[in-house]
Amino acid sequence: MVPIVLTVAGSDPSGGAGLQADLKTIHRHGAYGTAVATLITAQNTCGVERVEVLSAELVRVQLDSLLDDMVPRAAKTGALGSPDIVRDVAAVVAETSFPWVVDPVWAPSRGQPLSTGDLADVFREHLIPHASLVTPNAVEASQLADMPIRTLEEAGVAASRIASMGAKAVLVTGGHLEGAARGTDVLFCEGTGRELPAGLVVEGDFHGTGCALSAAIASRLAFGDEIPTAVARAKVWLEGALAHALSVGKGAKPVNHLWDVGSKP
């Protein structure tokens, strides 16, 4: 039976990030994608122009309706939009038994913010304690861990701090690190931190890399991979998807969600 993977995130009409990117990634990995919308954006490859956050009640109704009918093998979160949505999603996460990958998306690389209010505290208190894996970039991890992150050593400390909030594992992605550390991720899992160098560092201006990575990891978890294996396989796929990114607009390139799983970059 084809495993079901759920994404709870915002909509990106350009298809490079958010629900649209998640569903393409999930499908490419051989799973059946389902989606709950948290916010609607007007955006393109050049940036986010407008954001409308849905009510927490409507998000909860979507989740309840879906989960009353279908049982995902794994799920992920993206942009959640407001503290109330984070609390309601966290309540659902706490009641489910399948793994959740939490990608703390608060602001895009360019354009309008994707959330109202400060979400770091509510993530720490309500959502992270129930996460199987948290996948912040260095900027997001800095906010969650309340410390600067410029080096791999600092990324490792931050990952440990975030894990101490209750998450089973934390992956701090290295795209925002400085110098030679750039592109190397840090995974803290089962009490141990490890560096995960990129097999290929692709230069360029890209859109939706975090969404694609977290969706790929959730898909691998749905097929039964343990967290370190799911992360490693997702990273290899993402490197190929970045190396073959698509020029579809005037701005940043979306990753190539059609890149073959298992192919070399």
Largest sheet, in brief, is: 6 strands, mixed
Report the order of strands and helices.
EHEEHEHEHEHHEEEEHHE
Strand order of the largest sheet: 3-2-1-4-5-6
* Radius of gyration of CA atoms, rounded to a whole number: 17 Å
Care to count the β-strands?
Answer: 11
How would the global form be characterised? globular
Q: What portion of residues is helical?
A: 25-40%
Secondary-structure class? alpha/beta
What are the segments in which pLDDT stays under 50 over at least 5 consecutive residues? none
CATH class: Alpha Beta
> What's the domain count?
1
- The CATH homologous superfamily is named Ribokinase
- Quick check: average pLDDT? 93
CATH architecture heading? 3-Layer(aba) Sandwich
User: Which strand-content bin applies to the residues?
Assistant: 15-25%
Q: If you consult CATH, what is the topology?
A: UDP-N-acetylmuramoyl-L-alanine:D-glutamate ligase
Distance between the termini: 29 Å
How many DSSP helices?
Answer: 8
Topology readout:
Blueprint: E1 4-11, H1 18-28, E2 32-44, E3 47-53, H2 56-69, E4 74-77, H3 83-95, E5 100-102, H4 120-127, E6 133-134, H5 138-145, H6 152-163, E7 169-172, E8 185-189, E9 192-196, E10 206-207, H7 209-222, H8 227-243, E11 253-254
Helix pairs in contact: 1-7, 2-3, 3-4, 5-6, 7-8
Description:
The protein has 265 residues and is α/β, with parallel strands linked by helices. It has one domain (4-254): Ribokinase (UDP-N-acetylmuramoyl-L-alanine:D-glutamate ligase, 3-Layer(aba) Sandwich). It contains 8 helices and 11 strands. It has helices at residues 18-28, 56-69, 83-95, 120-127, 138-145, 152-163, 209-222, 227-243, and strands spanning 4-11, 32-44, 47-53, 74-77, 100-102, 133-134, 169-172, 185-189, 192-196, 206-207, 253-254. The strands form 3 sheets. Strands 3-2-1-4-5-6 form a 6-stranded mixed beta sheet. A 3-stranded antiparallel beta sheet has the order 7-8-9, sandwiched between helices. Helix 3 (83-95) packs parallel to helix 4. It is globular and about 45 Å long. The relative contact order is 0.16.
